[in-house]
Amino acid sequence: MRFVHSWRRSIRLKLIPLFLLTLIIPVSALGLVSYKIYDDESGRLIEKNLKNLVNMAASITEGFETEAASGRMGAAEAQEYVKEQLIGVKTGDTRAITKAFDLGENGYFFILNEQGDLLGHPLLEGQNIIDKKTSSGFYYIKDMIAKSMQGGGFTLYDWPLPNSEKEAQKITYAMQVPGEWGWIVAAGSYMKDYNSGEGHILNAIWITVAVCWLVFAPFLFLLIRSIVTPIKRITSEAARMASGDLSRLDLVVRNRDEIGELASSFRQMHDNLRDIVGTLLANADRLNAASNNMNLAVSETTLAGRQMALAAQEIASGNETQARAAAESSQSMEEMTQGIQRIADTSSEAFGSSETTLLEAVEGNRLLQTTDAKMGAISDTTGQLSGILDRLTERSSQIGGVAEAIAELAGQTNLLALNASIEAARAGEEGKGFAVVAAEVKKLAQRSSDSAAEVAELIRTVRTDVSAAGATMELNQRAVEAGVQALALTGESFAAIVKATQSVAKQIQESSSAAQQMAASSEEMAASMQEMDRVAGHANELAQTISAATEEQLAEMEALSASAESLRALASDLQLMAHKFKL
Predict the structure, then answer these.
(1) Which CATH class is domain 34-206?
(2) Please, what CATH class does the domain formed by 292-577 belong to?
(3) Residue 373 above 90 pLDDT?
(4) What is the rounded CA–CA span in Å between residue 547 and residue 558?
(5) In 70-109, which positions are buried (b, 16+ CB within 10 angstroms) versus exposed (e)?
(6) I want to staple 410 with a disulfide (CB 3.0 to 4.6 A). Which of 8, 189, 422, 448 is the partner?
(7) Distance between CA 98 and CA 458 in Å, rounded?
(8) Are strands 108-112 and 94-95 parallel, antiparallel or unpaired?
């Protein structure tokens, strides 16, 4: 637990395993990858070597079988020679394993047939091993025979080591040799005989890792020290700054990397903080003094505000009494003014009625004059209309002559169309087109004759209406002349009425003016009293407002006094906190 606590508080203990892992992991990974690559390549080389050796043995066997078949050697002699070359010379029932082939410490060739009879073997020659199996029950001889008959193949199985019960993996390659002998040539050995180099490589990897640890450990120590030592110094100075001591900075860091930049920034921060605290100390002292002065001034202002509030209340009480008296006087004056105003209103109404009568008389006279002028205009217009009707009668007569001429032309045209039709009938087929035109002309002539008859009828109607209108206009002319004479007499009567009405209106106007003057005077007095009442009320309102404002100002001054006291306390606290720093 103590180590864990120290590890959590120490950056050095954190960096040491970090750098060690940074060194160990890449080297170990490189070694393991190299070992794996070597193991894979070694396995392929082992298989290739075994296969090449068995192929070579098969070639040797085929060569001697050919010699035996040609009669240059006996079959038994040739077979024994091949066994001696591949396995070794036979001594008694065993053969000494030849070292002519590199099959590992415990590797060797052996020869068998399809029935599992060992035709050549260092120890078991002449035995049948078809039913041989491993401790796990794997019939490895049958597997070899089956793969050899398929063109050759590898068999892997576990087998006890020589003079030991411990098992190890064995690899064997078997191949059937073509020919009459029917041999199956196989070669195998323990994998560990081939993997001895791998063990050396693995040991070399671990030695390399250990040497790297030993060689780079001092460099790691120096690197960690170059990181941790400046950080410790910065931490120590930061702790002293945190305690309020800004009087000095004992920070010597020679690094030119990021830690050196950190130390430089820390020095700049110390200088800036020292300047800020110095300014803060000076301002805190001035703020404390200013808050004390403001607190004293606010106390004096609050006392003066209380005195002013009392005076404002007394003024408001006096103004209220004066306002009541002014209101009573204003009410009496207003009643007198209302009586005088009623008299003035009555006079005004009489003057208004007389003035209205005068205006109506003048307006009636003006209307009579206008009517007289309009009647003269009507008389003139009636004369003009009579002349127009005479001319209209004359034009109607002219239009009647034109209509008769049109009717006469239509009769002649109709006669010509009839003659043309007769001539067309005489012409036969050549006159059919002309007959059609003549028929159309006849129709147009008939329509013109009918239209001329209608026009003649309309003209006769117009002549009758114009004659009736002329008689009516003559009667209207006589009636207009009689109306003009009556209007002249009526205008003289209205002139007399206007003159009398003007005299009465003048007298009533003089009476109304006097009443209006009396009413105006009384209204001015009432207005003065009302103004006095309003001023007194306004003064009372102002006094009340001043009193309320004084009370509100007094409350605000008391709140300001409390705020000033709070500010003085905060300034004192700030001064105490600022003086904790040592410059």
Answers:
(1) alpha beta
(2) mainly alpha
(3) no
(4) 16
(5) eeebeeeebbebbbebbbbeeeeeebebbeebebbebbbb
(6) 448
(7) 163
(8) unpaired
Closest CA to 189 of 46, 39, 87: 46
Res 538 pLDDT > 80: no
Q: Work out the pLDDT band at 3, boundaries 50, 70, 90.
A: very low
Give pairs for 545-550: CB < 8 Å, separation 24+. Answer: 546/312, 546/315, 546/316, 547/309, 547/312, 547/313, 547/315, 547/316, 550/305, 550/308, 550/309, 550/312
Does residue 103 contact residue 189 with C-beta atoms inside 8 Å? yes
The model's pLDDT over 445-484, given as tens digits with 9 standing for 90+, comes to: 677 677 767 767 777 776 676 677 667 667 766 766 776 6
Residue with tokens 């159309």: 440
For 61-80, how does the pLDDT look when each residue is reduced to its tens digit (9 = 90+)? 999 999 888 888 888 999 99
Strands of the 167-176 sheet, one edge to the other: 118-120, 108-112, 184-190, 167-176, 153-160
Q: Are 175 and 188 contacting, i.e. CB atoms less than 8 angstroms apart? A: no
Task: Taking residues 184-206, report their average pLDDT.
Answer: 76
Phi then psi for residue 254, to 5 deg, are -100, 0
Secondary structure (DSSP) of 446-504: HHHHHHHHHHHHHHHHHHHHHHHHHHHHHHHHHHHHHHHHHHHHHHHHHHHHHHHHHHH
Quote the tokens at residue 279. 């300014």
Mean pLDDT, range 292-311, rounded to an integer: 69
Q: How far apart are CA 555 and CA 294, in angstroms?
A: 17
SS3 205: helix
3-state class (DSSP) for residue 95: strand
Whether 164 contacts 124, CB under 8 Å: no
Radius of gyration of the chain (CA): 75
Looking at residue 121, what is its pLDDT?
92
Question: Please, where are the H alpha helices in 95-189?
Answer: 140-149
Annotated domain spans of the chain: 34-206, 292-577
Q: How far apart are CA 78 and CA 65, in angstroms?
A: 7
pLDDT grade for 322, boundaries at 50, 70 and 90: low
Number of Cβ atoms within 10 Å of the Cβ of 325? 12
Bridge-based pairing state of the strands 90-91 and 108-112: unpaired
